[in-house]
Structures are given as structure tokens and as C-alpha cells.
Amino acid sequence: MLGFDSRQLHSEVAGQSHELWPVFFFINISSTSGGYAADMADMASLRSGKRRDGSGYVQVLYRLNGKQSSTSFEDLPSATKFQKQVDKFGAAKALARRSA
């Protein structure tokens, strides 16, 4: 399921079916050019998606050279590991470590 529908959450909290919960939750990090967000420029976020063939993937979104970019992974643990590397070392070093 792409996106998040708050009506779904409210109906589930009210005691209805829990079968429709998304597999992954979105972790959104604000990224603007200025103020406090400039300190967060190397923080990454996760976004899940589904391909046309029905298979799922997880994207790690980050800023590289002032532009938003992403790298896709087949599973959540791999994506989370790369996200932590971006947060710790920055996008350029995390990408270099991944390709090495």
C-alpha cells in the first residue's frame, strides 16, 4: 500500500479489522534549505512501495549535493542499515561504502 490513510487508522483504533495495516510505516524527516533543517541534511527517511509485478521494495530517501535522491532495497533490514549509514556518515560516504 502506498501512502497512509488516516481514516484507516481511526477505523482500526475503533476496534475494526487490523488486517489493512501497512507493512511499513513511513518515517518522514523534514528537509528544507535553511534553519534547523540544514543540520538534518544528512538524515534519511524510508518509504515503502509496490512494483507492478506485486513485489515490494523499500526506498531510502536522502539529500545528495542539495537534491533529493533515493536508493531502493528489496527488504527492510537492508534499507534500515543503509539509512543508519547515511545518518552517521552522510549520503556520499554511505553510497561509497555500499559500492565498495
Give the count of structural domains. Answer: 1
Largest sheet: 3 strands, antiparallel
**Radius of gyration, taken over Cα atoms and rounded to an integer in Å:** 16 Å
Q: Note the run of SSEs as H and E.
A: HEEEHH
Average residue pLDDT: 76
Instruction: Strand order, main sheet: write it out.
Output: 1-2-3
User: Percent range for helical residues?
Assistant: 25-40%
Question: What is the count of helical runs?
Answer: 3
Work out the number of β strands. 3
| Ends distance | 33 Å
Q: Pairing-aware structural class of the strands and helices? A: alpha+beta
Shape: globular
Approximate strand percentage: 15-25%
Oligomer: single chain
Q: Which regions contain 5 or more consecutive residues with pLDDT less than 50? A: 31-39
Write structural notes for this entry.
14% of the residues are buried. With 100 residues, this protein is an alpha+beta fold. The protein has three helices and three strands. The protein has helices at 6-13, 76-89, 91-99; strands spanning 45-50, 56-64, 67-73. The radius of gyration is 16 Å and the shape is globular. It has a three-stranded antiparallel beta sheet with strand order 1-2-3, covered by helices on one side.
Notable features of this structure?
single chain, 100 residues, 3 helices, globular
